[in-house]
Write a structure and sequence with these properties.
A hairpin with a 2-residue loop joins strand 8 and strand 9. The chain is 22% helix and 31% strand. It is globular and about 50 Å long. It has one domain: Fumarylacetoacetase-like, C-terminal domain (Fumarylacetoacetate hydrolase, domain 2, Alpha-Beta Complex), CATH 3.90.850. The protein is an alpha+beta fold and 248 residues long. The strands form 2 sheets. Strands 1, 2, 3, 5, 6, 7, 10 and 11 form an 8-stranded mixed sheet that branches. A 5-stranded mixed sheet has the order 4-13-12-8-9, with no helix packed on it.
Length: 248
């Protein structure tokens, strides 16, 4: 994509965000992660500063990808989003980390962990600015901040540095009934690996990590969809829970 095409894609995404509408891209699709990240950065310029980042990977060995969490889109739970304001009602149960201090130069893995102030159970609310997104080239979703609507922050939990995440149970409860009930399931492996990758990526290419920013590390339950009126609880037994409602 040319700089002009990247700019046009970002303008269309920003317009869709501000008007709560969807659009079908007419220009060329991003061909690389770098082009998708350039679109993300142009969108983020309309919201500066960003409130954090989301990351994830398809397997413990795969290179992760990432997207900004735009200013005003990281909120404390419980939270509520009118169903009519969204094109789709997607939810993911995740673990996130809030940074207590800046990282502005290339960090070691240990330095990334040392800069974290707290770990949290969170729920990502998923929506898209892209009409018929499944028919589009996959990197359009990454350009659209991997379809982030909001990140809802739940309680902090202790011993996050030594916790055995592979054995952690997780439940997704919709209107009082279990939709997901499993052990482990984070496709990218340890959330610590993912937050370390994210911090290094952002320091190298996108201005660094800043105190107060939150980094969420991918869904433990895949992407699940609910209906208008639903109340959704993400529960990590022993760690905490958070909830979101979608009033009709």
């Amino acid at each position: 994509m040319t700089p002009t095409e990247i700019h046009a894609a970002a303008v269309a995404l920003l317009r869709a965000r501000f008007t709560h509408t969807q659009f079908t891209p007419t220009g060329p699709a991003p061909a690389t992660d770098d082009e998708a990240y350039a679109i993300q950065d142009a969108v983020a310029n309309g919201y500066r500063p960003v409130d954090g980042w989301k990351t994830g990977a398809r397997s413990p060995e795969a290179t992760p990808n990432c997207a900004p969490l735009l200013k005003g889109h990281v909120i404390d739970g419980p939270a509520s989003f009118p169903a009519a304001s969204m094109a789709m009602l997607g939810i993911e149960a995740e673990v996130a980390f809030r940074f207590a201090r800046d990282i502005t130069s290339a960090p070691s893995d240990e330095a990334v962990l040392d800069a974290i102030g707290s770990a949290h159970v969170v729920m990502e609310v998923v929506d898209t600015r892209l009409a018929d997104y499944k028919s589009l080239a996959p990197l359009w979703a990454l350009s659209d901040n991997q379809m982030n609507k909001a990140l809802v922050i739940g309680p902090s939990f202790a011993n996050w540095r030594t916790h055995d995440y592979a054995k952690q149970p997780v439940k997704l409860i919709v209107d009082g009934k279990p939709l997901v009930d499993k052990i482990g399931g984070l496709s990218g492996g340890s959330p610590l690996r993912l937050v370390q990758w994210l911090a290094k990526h952002v320091v190298a290419r996108r201005g660094g990590i800043h105190a107060g920013q939150v980094v969420t590390t991918g869904s433990w339950v895949g992407l699940q969809f609910v209906q208008p009126g639903a109340k959704v609880e993400a529960i990590f037994p022993g760690l905490g829970a958070t909830s979101v409602t979608f009033p009709a």
